[in-house]
Amino acid sequence: MSEQEHDLTPDGLREKDELLRLLTETSRDLIGVLDLDGRIVYASSAAEILLGRTPNSVFERMHPDDLENGRRWWAQVLAGSHEIFTWRISTAAGDWRWRETWCERVQYHGKPHILAFCRDVTDAKQAEVEREKTLRRLSESLTKLAEAEEIAHVGYWENDLEADRITWSDETYRILGMDPGERRATAAQFRDVIHPEDRQIQAEASARAKRGEGRYDAEYRVVRPNGEIRTIHSVGNTTFDESGRPVRGFGVVQDITERKETERALSESHALLKAIVDGTSDAIFVKDLAGRYLMINAAGMQSIGMSEEEVLGKDDRELFGTEAAGPVMEHDRRVMESGESQTFEEELSMEGVTKTWLATKGVYRDANGQVIGLVGISSDITEMKRLMDQFRQAQKMEAVGRLAGGVAHDFNNLLTVINSYSDMILQNLSADDPNRELVTEIRFAGDRGAGLTRQLLAFSRNQVLQPQVVNLNTLLKELKKLLRRLIAEDVELAVRSERALGFVKVDPGQFEQAIINLAINARDAMPSGGRLTLETHNTELTAEYTARLQDVRPGSYVMITVSDSGSGMDKATIARIFDPFFTTKERGKGTGLGLAMVYGFVKQSGGHIEVESEMGCGSKFRIYVPRITESAEVARSPRDVKMPIGIETVLLVEDEETVRTLLRRVLESSGYTVLSARDGADAVRIAREYAGDIQILVTDLVMPKMNGRQLAEQLLATSRPELSVLFMSGYTDEILPREGIQESRVAFLQKPFNPIELAHKIREVLEPAVPLTQRNES
Questions:
Q1: Which helix (H) or strand (E) holds 491?
Q2: Based on the domain organization, do 610 and 702 belong to the same domain?
Q3: What is the torsion angle, in degrees rounded to the nearest 10, for the CA atoms of residue 61, residue 67, residue 71 and residue 73?
Q4: Quick count: other Cβ atoms within 10 Å of Cβ 477?
Q5: Final residue of a structural domain among 628, 658, 690
Q6: Is 662 in contact with 758 (CB distance < 8 Å)?
Q7: How far is CA 364 from each of CA 296, 359, 361, rounded to the nearest angstrom?
Q8: The domain spanning residue 419 has which CATH number?
Q9: Are residues 288 and 339 in the same domain?
Q10: Is residue 423 located within the same domain as residue 523?
Q11: CA dihedral of residues 314, 319, 320, 325 (deg, nearest 10)
Q12: Which of 361, 473, 511, 748 is the least buried, fewest Cβ under 10 Å from its Cβ?
């Protein structure tokens, strides 16, 4: 019997039978005897427990996937191999259990058999499978983690504080610009990588973490070996031993260079955008779907006089009241429903002041394209609308003024004829002539017509003023007696004058007429009596004030205030108060030209007029006239009413035949030689053909084809360089300068005039240095 075989005959085992039975029946491992063909000839009771019943062969219930390996293993067993074979076998329950089997060759009943020991290793095998799965998952996770680290530029680090050893992941090495294969990092080497200016930042963060004052959190720059500077952010935790001593730190590090650059660019863009938004004079705002303000810029807060805290989170109803906010919120609703930008003109009242905005509103959307609110830009156009109203008013006044000036021109020609012939007739009528009263009425009507044309011309700003340097206190003092007679006895008149009032340059007659018109209007507004007050003051108009006015310059002015305690005016009346022919008086009691004339005179004098009034609270007119530094002019002595005579030759040019005939008769009766021309071309021909001297040109300014100025310039430049010139007109428009007429080379006579005024004016031009008392008179 070989060393591998044992005698297990019944005789040999008898003494050991009981012990063997106990061992095999109580063992959890299956013990069996198989013949050389693999059939089971004996199996311990564990077979019944594990398998439900004992199979006939070792291959009977083997897993199909294990059969091939099982047959090879069995052949090796028969050849004497002791290799352990692990395989699966089906149980009575139908599941598969792993078995670990090893064998010995034995003699059983005198024949060679195989003694097999079979152990259930299912739990161990499953644990191994799970372990392999876990290792595989861990490997996959580590791979994914490494990939994620590389993609996110996030690396892992661990710091063994006791051994002063730092462990970095591959990505951490890459972040720091080092070769992952070096694996030689120490705390000192790490400090060397940190930018010198940021080492203190990292050291303080590390010290706080080691003291247990929160986690490690630091943002700093590192300098790579190639000199490149990167910004990194590192966070981590620290573990402590039982004594509270820090022993280990671990965490992650991320390269945030690009993010920092993006943040810096965004910050700069945000700063630029904020500067633009806050720097603009327009209100910029954002609202949510409910109309609540989410953002408003500085200009917007300033325009409504509220702070950011007062505005944000509130809607327009809460800020301005339901009635005022209604149209604004309706505009918001229309924009958000349509999804399209729209422009509106909106009005809001704040503390009694109504402002107008031009608002452009549009929606803003979320990432999915859904409307989530509204963005708006509003421009305060209150002042612009006021200026536009002023401009339209000025255009209207200009248009009507041109019409009025044209009418006045023709009317003045007629009045010149009527008044002059009336004067000539009156000179030849005795005091007791029955026709004298009739001619006097004609003359009186002519004077009234002349007054009306002066009002038309003053309104149209086409009257040639006779400005003088005066003190308005003096004019008002002289005017006070007249005003007292014009207003009712139950109206109290008060004149308050500033003592050191500055001088102004105005036409005294037109100024007095303007004050009279204002006083008459005030009287009519106080039918039951009241108070009329005239005041004068020196004042300054600032650039800020004049910026909202048209054709008004900043500087020093004299202000004349005319105020009454009458019935006052509503806004609609104030808006039209200076319109020509506009009146609130009954039919037949007002022409509507009084205040229009005042307006024209003030504007023509380079000044400004404004009105302040409320119903039941009276009215106040303020006239501003530019202040000058010149002294007041000395008033001239009254002229002699006698007709002066002359012997000079006059070139008379007038396109209106009736006026031309009248003037020729007047001049010839005064001793002049008169060359009469119907227009400019006729005058040029006469001046060229006349052989004698011509001392003076008397010409109408407004004529067809060639006006009076053009005619004078041509004659002075060609055939008559020594010619004196007297212009006459009832309407000058742009042909003659409106200022400085007294200082120019030419003289001017305003139509209508009478024969004596014409004769005196000619003598003034021909004998400027001769006193009136020494001139030849008839």
A1: strand 491-496
A2: no
A3: -100
A4: 12
A5: 628
A6: no
A7: 15, 16, 10
A8: 1.10.287.130
A9: yes
A10: no
A11: -10
A12: 473
Among 753, 757, 728, smallest CA distance to 447 is for 753
Report the alpha-carbon distance of residue 607 to residue 507 in Å, rounded.
13
The rounded distance, in Å, linking the Cα atoms of 43 and 605 is 138
Residues 648 and 662: their CA atoms lie apart, in Å, by 18
Domain membership of residue 418 (yes or no) is: yes
349: closest CA among 321, 309, 330, 383? 321
**Residue 115 and residue 104 in contact, taking contact as beta carbons nearer than 8 Å:** yes
Output phi, psi for 574, to 5 deg. Answer: -60, -40
297/514 Cα distance (integer angstroms)? 49
Distances (CA, A) of 162 to 165, 207, 215, 238, 250: 8, 15, 19, 13, 13
Give the domain extent around 375: 284-297+308-380
Beta-carbon count within 10 A of 211 CB? 11
User: CA 600 to CA 604: how far, in whole Å?
Assistant: 6
How far apart CA 645 and CA 84 sit, in angstroms, is: 162
Residue 95 phi/psi, 5-degree rounding, is -95, 170
Domain shared by 508 and 575, yes or no: yes
Alpha helix (H) residue ranges in 571-677: 571-576, 594-604, 657-669
Are 671 and 741 members of one domain? yes
**Domain-ending residue, one of 95, 120, 145:** 120
Strand partners, 86: 100
Tell me, yes or no, whether 607 lies in a domain. yes
- Helices and strands per DSSP (H, E), number in the chain: 24, 27
Phi, psi at 255, each rounded to 5°: -80, 115
In a domain, residue 638? The reply is no
CB count in 10 Å sphere of residue 559: 21
Alpha carbons 174 and 158: distance in angstroms, whole number: 16
Alpha carbons 347 and 313: distance in angstroms, whole number? 22
Pairing mode, if any, of strands 530-541 and 491-496?
parallel
Q: What's phi and psi for 368, nearest 5 deg?
A: -95, 5
Which of 234, 226, 230, 268 minimizes the C-alpha distance to 251?
A: 234
Note whether 57 and 184 are same-domain residues: no
Half-sphere exposure of residue 31: CA atoms within 13 angstroms, side-chain side = 11
CATH code of the domain covering residue 164: 3.30.450.20
pTM confidence score:
0.38
> Which residue type sits at 444?
F
How deeply is 604 buried, as exposed, middle or buried, from its count of CB atoms within 10 A (0-12, 13-18, 19+)?
buried
Total structural domains in the chain?
A: 6
Indicate if 661 and 737 belong to the same structural domain: yes
| 394/492 same-domain check | no
**What is the SS3 assignment for 214?**
coil
Residue 20, phi then psi, degrees to nearest 5 = -65, -40
Within a domain: residue 569? yes
Would you state the pLDDT for residue 739?
40
List per-block mean pLDDT (blocks of 10 residues) for the chain, which spans 778 residues: 49 55 66 86 74 76 89 89 86 82 86 87 82 75 65 79 83 83 71 91 91 90 91 91 90 87 76 75 88 88 86 89 87 90 84 81 88 89 76 66 66 76 81 81 74 59 66 87 80 90 86 85 88 93 83 90 90 76 54 69 86 90 89 45 82 90 89 93 92 92 88 90 88 47 61 83 80 52
DSSP letters, 418-450, are HHHHHHHHHHHS-TT-TTHHHHHHHHHHHHHHH
Q: State whether residue 378 is helix, strand or coil.
A: strand
Dihedral in degrees, nearest 10, Cα atoms 578, 580, 585, 590: 120
Which residues are within 8 A (CB) of 675 and not within 5 positions of it... i.e. 6 or more apart?
Answer: 649, 650, 651, 652, 686, 687, 690, 694
